[in-house]
Each structure stands twice: as C-alpha cells, then as structure tokens.
TrEMBL record:
Location of the Major facilitator superfamily (MFS) profile domain: 1-428
Membrane topology per record: Multi-pass membrane protein
InterPro entries xref list: MFS_dom, MFS_STP/MST-like_plant, MFS_sugar_transport-like, MFS_trans_sf, STP/PLT_plant, Sugar/inositol_transpt, Sugar_transporter_CS
GO MF annotations in UniProt: monosaccharide transmembrane transporter activity; symporter activity
Full protein name: Major facilitator superfamily (MFS) profile domain-containing protein
Similarity comment text for this entry: Belongs to the major facilitator superfamily. Sugar transporter (TC 2.A.1.1) family.
Keywords of the record: Membrane, Sugar transport, Symport, Transmembrane, Transmembrane helix, Transport
Transmembrane segments: 32-55, 62-82, 121-139, 151-173, 235-257, 269-293, 300-324, 339-362, 374-397, 403-424
Gene Ontology CC: membrane
Localisation: Membrane
Subcellular location, principal: membrane
Entry-linked Gene3D superfamilies: MFS general substrate transporter like domains
Amino acid sequence: MEPFLRKFFPSVYKKMKKAGSGNEYCKFDSQLLTLFTSSLYIAALVASFFASIVTRRFGRKMSMFIGGLVFLFGSILNGAAVNIEMLIIGRLLLGVGVGFGNQAVPVYLSEMAPAKFRGALNIGFQMAVTIGILVANLINYGTARIKGGWGWRLSLGLAAVPAILMTIGSLFLPDTPNSILERGHTEKAKQMLRKIRGTDNVDEEFQDLFDASEAAKKVDHPWKNIVQPRYRPQLVISVLIPFFQQLTGINVINFYAPVLFKTLGFGDNASLMSAVITGTINVLATFVSIFTVDKFGRRILFLEGGIQMIISQAAIGAMIAIYFGVDGDGNLSKVQADILLFLICTYVAAFAWSWGPLGWLVPSEICPLEIRSAGQAINVSVNMLFTFVIAQVFLTMLCHMKFGLFFFFAGFVITMTIFISFFLPETKNVNIEEMIRVWKAHWFWGKYIPDDAVIGKHERSN
C-alpha cells in the first residue's frame, strides 16, 4: 500500500513511482522491506526451540496459549506502529507466536486423531493457514481502498482477531492423552483417550501409548537421542521435508504476490485482486488433500503435486522470458496476463494439495514420543529458517535472476520429487505409535532400525 511504503519505506516508494528508473525487476529490491517480512520467521526459528521445551514439559495446549498471547501483542504493536523499529519489534513478536503455534498444533492434531482420519484432521492445520492467507489478501484489498491512508493499520491490527481466538480457544481444549501420559498421569490419560475415541475399548491403543511414554521417560535428552542411528530416518525427513517445502518457491507467491504482479505490469488493484484469486485457489485445492490423503496416501499427492509444479514453473518462466523480457520492459496483453495468472494458480493448486499440507503432516506423525517434541522443533526451525532466507533474498533474486528465478525453484522441485519417490514410505492408516514398523520395512531406512525397536509390539500382536 502506497501510504505504508511512504511512511516506512520511502526509498522504495520513490523508486516505484519514478518512471523509467531502470530494470523493472529491481524496483522493489530493498533489504529493509524484506526484513519487514522475514524478521517474523527468524523469530519463529528461535522460538521453536523454547516451544519444544514447553510442549514437552507443560503440554501442547500451553504452547498454543503462549503463542496466541504473544501474537496478540505483536499485532497490537504493528497496528499502532509509528516508526520502523516499532514495526519490526511487532513482527518479531508475531514470529514468536508463529514458532509456538507451529510447534504445538500439528503434534496436537496428530496425537488426537484416530489413525484412519489423522491425515485429513492434521491438514486442518494447513487449511487454516490457507484460509488465513486468503482472508489476509481480502483484507489488504479492502483496506487499501480506505481513504485517508490509514488502511494499513487496520490490515496489520486485524491479526489480533485470530490471536484472540487461539489464546482463548486453547483454554477450552483438552490435552492429548500422549501429553498427559508424558507428565505422569496414567489414569487421566486413559480417561481422555476413551473420551476422544468415544468408546471404552481403547486398551490396545492405550498400551501402545503407555509403552511409548515409558520409553520416552528413559530419554533425558531428546536432542541428543534424535541423532542416534535408530532415529536417522525421522531426523532426515524432519530436516529435508521443510527444507524442500520452502524451496518449492511457494512463499514467493504467498509473501510477494502483489509485488510480483505489479512487477509484471498488473495495476495496484489488479495485483491485489490477483493475490486474492491465488489465495482462493490455495484454499479450494487444500480441500482436495483433505478428502484424498487418507484414501490414496501421502506419496501419490507428493509426486503428482511435484510434477504439476515443475511443469507450471517452467511455463511461467518461459512466458515471462518471452513476453516481459530481460529488463522487464515488455508488456503483457490482457490475454497473456490471464494465461500467466492461470499458470500461477495451477502451481499454487499443486502445492496446496501436496507439499503445503503434507510438509506439516508427515514430520508430525513419523516421530516416536521420546523424540517427538525435538523432531517437531527441527521441522519448525528448518521451515522457519528457509522461510526467512527466501523472504529476505527473494526481491534481490528477482532483481538479478529475473525470469530465471522460476527455473531455479523448478530445479529444486525436480530434486525433491525424486527424493520422495525413493525415500519416503507410505504412512497412511498407520497408528502413530506403530510408525516404527514402516521404517523397518523400508528398503533403505530399515538398516537403521534395530530389531528390538519393533519386537515388543510384534509379541503383543501375536
């Protein structure tokens, strides 16, 4: 929004308004502007490690409560900002809230859900993310039209609404049986499991939880434990899935869609509306994942989504190269702009039913209880680290790599699709405490899993 840029980023505003000021790809290149976006994620990275301790010792709902409360303070500070320092501090507080929320929510959902519905229920987390993106785009579109130049305050301040919902809502949530057991309340955990399953016949599942809890209690240092060879599959997946998720290039669209569309010649309102369109596609495509992930599995969605993203990114890069040129001085006709928007929506849809939700689901469901908090902290921290990197360098990359940026991300999508095809086993319909069997049966990871890791469950089953 121009009033926002004038107040906090005047040099960017002047460059944007100056006609013929040079390469169009570079007119938004400002490290201070990208710091406004990326500071949130470096704070989330640091906070995720503290959130891991809170989640393990005090439960998942406590982490959600802290995350919502800190996020609330950050949104108030952003809405009331009078200088860049106040703005950045507010963003850092938002980041702390994101770090705690991302640490606790996927684990909470995976632990509460029955195995046959775990994928769909966990993807509710990603659905909330995509709805948030869409609502944010709609708010930006609406508040940008407010006369008087104060619409940006409303846009930033309205983040307090989901923060209040999360803070208050967490107080009414029951804690997970896993978390209750982890803190030593055996009978209370069994009662909670009966309540959430709606039946008294939970003895077998509870025994799995109890055995996992007892094993977890013997682990004083989950961070030291997770680097042992027997947890190598979970460690590698918890690092590479969020790493690849960010290198799909999706946050180029999520963070900078209006900037990207304006760079490509869309007008102010047209770029905001285009961001709303991609946000709508994001939400609708996430429903595809919800209804298919437990039926067809995780792998097929990963692989199909990867192939679709590769094709879309290559087509986007080629189209920008041909019609917009090396210096960004070309013009897109309305038809060409519509085709470009369609290709971007195709790419967003592929991400939204594959790497978007599954990037959170799979790492949250694969770790045994004794390393679950550490595994999720690694997942969140790697995700936030590379979200920060992409957010911080994107505008500079756009300036220097131009249309080649889309081919750059397509190369990573090729790599990660190959990785999934060889190294990720199918985890659908597997109880979360029996996941060790999946790794033991895998052609590559099985050699890291000792026989005694699965023998207890095997004996009980027989």
